[in-house]
Each structure stands twice: as structure tokens, then as C-alpha cells.
User: Fold this.
Amino acid sequence: MFTNSSTALRGVRAAITGGTSGLGLALVRELLGRGADVAFVARNRDRVERIARQHPPVHGIVGDISLREDIHPIAIQIAGALGGLDVLVNNASDLGPAPLKLLADTECEELERALATNVLGPFRLTRALLGALSVSARERGGALVINVSSDAAINAYPTWGAYGASKAALHHMSRIWDAELEADGVRFLSVDPGDMDTPLHALAVPDADRSTLKRPEDAARELADTIAAALERERHAA
Amino acid sequence: MIAAADRAIQRPADAKLLVVDAAGRARDTSRAALLDVLRPGDLVIANDAATLPASLQGTHLRSGRAIEVRLAGRHSLDRDDVSEFAAIVFGEGDFHTRTEDRPAPPQLAPGDRLALGPLEATVLTTLGHPRLIRLRFDGTPDAIWAGLSRHGRPIQYAHVPEPLALWDVWTAIAGPPVAFESPSAGFALNWRMLHEMRRKRIGFVTLTHAAGISSTGDDALDALLPFDEPYDIPSATTAAIARARVQGGRIVAVGTTVVRALEHAATCDGVVPAGAGLANQRIGAGTRLRVVDAILSGVHEPGTSHYQLLRAFTNDATLDRMVGEMTAHGYRGHEFGDFVFMVAMPRTTPRPERLHQTLRRLPA
Assistant:
């Protein structure tokens, strides 16, 4: 097998939230396959332990990024177990009400939950890990935060209000983080992986024709290429 | 007397800064003026260690008594080296009781088992004092990181009555979770200040130093402080030091831990090599500083090891004056208190290499 050195991620320390299903799990496998040192976070202890057992030497971390009290314990385990951090992927997402609802029918608590997972969680975790990321930027020439977004962050799809509004906030926050921290070598990318065959998509569109959906493995490969290219660019610029 | 700051606010708007220059003159100003005492070409070096939740409540299984274990030292910063720690053990109670009033722990012997929330540990040895032990946690490094982060709380003292959360004790630049207590001089920094420094061509880099415990409540143990502390100095930092030297900039340490790491690593001609080390020296009146030209520090009471370290920077008459000024202006002490910026006083009889450095740096 031909190895493309520019897309390898040997020794890169990466953390992925929402790592036990869908894009997150596919990305865990993809990054491990490229030689990265990977930690992932998810809420369900049994699933975290199973995925960790199946993918040594990955580091499985139990935590809920929507809870303020969980953020620092998660950050300690990520930075502690990996001995630092080069890439943070904020992938864990909350759909909002399922089945989807018109905004007029959406409960405030459903919107709050989507905001807690899709906006506040990534903000808090990024802040808690910014010190580790900037250490990486100073020592290794660049660090990266990937915020997983959606076309629902850009387009006004009826019934996708809680999800779309929260992803729009995350998308814009990514751009502001990047503008503020570019000179520090910590770069932010907002990435729309496309419509994938994942549990979240099944929750949103239960009767979708799955054959028309992108496989999470393909989206993970593209995302890993994006990460490798962005790190390469940043470390050349440094 | 200097009163303790009793609220967990890292950057109160009214924080004070006492600037002590190389001639020993002291000037009372505000923390907001910190940028004005730095000069283009200076290199500011901070400790980027994040603070562990190093206080663990639990039970000494042989006696069934409640204990509090405060992790206090470790061999290295290696991410997998989290099984063995030096630790201070207290009897029942928590931070609300002053450490000097805390009950002694049950008698601790090698082989004793400790249940600490989700973690279990074995006492390996006692270290010459009934409260000081070396312990070993059961489990894999991942399980130990998980147990510490879930069960531990920040080490805290009675002068701050509200329980501290981790976000109270992490500096804005906190990265590797290796400090046992906060490298609190770093509370003076925020990201806006780092960006202002860049704009003013003031350099900023970090090192990682496992800041240890500041007080044990026991005179015999306190006399041993600071314990040995592992550190790591990145090559980006040593390169920045060399560059700043050539350009005549001052090396400004944020906090006593940065002084300890840099001065421990330095060779006798003041060159700082990159890499890991274990700082085991004491810095005081007899110490010749080889690297650091100025320090930003919190306010510490005479008699503490932090205060002793300032004697390497200046003479006792200046320190007496400093304490007088701080008392007169209502400075607050301890980790959430006010700040002092002190420029090292030139020695009257510098050794040749120090004189050489001083001359090289004069153009600023």
C-alpha cells in the first residue's frame, strides 16, 4: 500500500468528542490508522469502554460536554493521557427535538439542550484546552480545532431550527476564534461533512434512503485529509 | 501584616502591583500597569502547568479513619508516570480547618491501603515524617487520570472559605495538568495581555513546572518546602531566551516556579538547555541568578519559601521596605492576592560571567 506522507498523522495528539458512533467513531479509527495518538469522549460508559477495548491504544474518556462540571475533568484526561494536544475535534452534537419540530413548537428546554451541546460545550472545552493547544503551537508550530458544522448552519431548513441555529452559532464562533488566535498558531476550521448515514441523521430523517447518504468512513477520510493539510500548512508557516 | 485575599477572583479590577526597580526603589501601581513596566525585547516566561485536583478525600482502611491525601510530588512529567506520588496526609476534615489545626492522620505504615473515591492506593514508604508518604495507585494510567479528575478537588486553604472549582485555579494559559497547586503569578495574565505584548514586541514563551504544595501546617515539614519539582523546558523557549539575550532583552519570570526551573537548568555560564529536569535546589540570599533578570510574583509573607526566593533578587533592606509599602497600601497576599514586579539588583561583586551578561544586556 502506498503511504502518502503528507496525509499521515504520526505522533499527532488528537481528541474527538462524540467518539462512539457516526462520524466521531469513524474519525477515531481513521486517525488511529494514520498513526495519531487519539483520545475520545462520549457519555455512555459501556460504549466508551467497549470502543476503547476494541481500538488499543486509544484513550476512552467518559463525560458529557454539555455539562459545565464535566469539562475540566475531560480536559485533564485528554491533556494528561495524551501528554498534550495538537488537534481538538468538537464533533458531539445534539439534534434538538426528535422528531424535528417547527420552531414555533420547539420547547425552550429543547433549544437550550442543543445550545449546551453544540455551542457552550465546544466553547468551554476549547477554552479549557486552549493552553495545551497553544503549547503545541509554540513547540510544534501549529494546533488545530475542528468544529463539525452542517449545511443547516447556513441554510434555513424548516423544522431544523434548534440544530440549525446552534450550528450557525458554532460556525460563526469558529470564524471569530480563528481571527483572534491566528497569530498564536491555533487555527479553527468549521467543517460540514455532508449528509451522512449516522444515528443523528436517522433520528432527524427516519425514512431517508440510506443508499443516498455518505458513509461516515468516507467523511472521516476527507476530514483527516483536511486536518493533515491544515497542520502541514500551519507548521510550514511557523 | 499582609491580609490574605479571601475570594477566588484571578483578575480583580483593583489588583495592585508593587514595582521594585534594580536600585531597590518601590512604586505602588495597579496590575493594569504591568505592560508599562515591560520593555520591547523583554522575554516573559510563564509556567503553563494546569492544576491537578490533588486533594483526595478517602479512608485509611486499616484504621477505618477518614483522611485527606494531598498529592505533593512526582518523579517526572511523563504522561504515564502517574502511579507513584509523594503525598501529605491529614486526618479528618477539610480545607475549612487551618492546616496547622488539622488532626494528624492515623499512623501510616508501608503496605497500608487507602480508598480514595474510585481510586485505591498503597502506602509504599513514609518519608521521615508521620504525614509524608510515598503512595502507589492501582490501575492503568488512563484509570488513574480518570479517577483523579473525577474525585479530586483543588488543594485549598482556610483563607478562601468558598470551595474552589478547577476553573478558579487554572490560569488562562493552563495546559499540561501537572501542578499540585496553582502557579498563581500567572493569574495576572489573560489573552488580551498576551496580544498586547506581541504588539509591543515583548516576547512570551512558557515552560512546564509541577508547582508543589505551599504549606503543610507543620513547621518541620514546611521547612522542607519546596519539595523536588519536575519541569520541562521546550526548545522553543530556550531558543527565545538565547535570542532575547543577544538583543539585550530582560528575562522576566512569571512566578517563583519559573525561576526555580530556569536557574536549575542553567549551566554556570547562564545557558539554558532544553529538556526535562528535577528542580531540587533552594533559592535564597546566597543564590546567584544566572538567567532571570526580573520576576512577577504574588505577595508572600516573610518566612515562606516564596519570600526566601526574592532574597536572590534584592537585599533585605529592600525587602523590608517592600513589606512596609505593601502593608501601608493594603496589599493582599496568597494565591488570589496582589502582585510584585521585582528587577534583580546588580551584585556588588559580579562574577565575570555575570558581569559579561550584564554588559551584553545593557543596550536596552
User: Anything to note?
Assistant: The interface with chain B takes residues 59-62, 72-77, 79-84, 128, 131-135, 138-139, 180, 183-184 of chain A (CB under 8 Å). The first helix of chain A runs from residue 22 to 33. Chain A has seven helices and six strands. The mean pLDDT of chain A is 95.
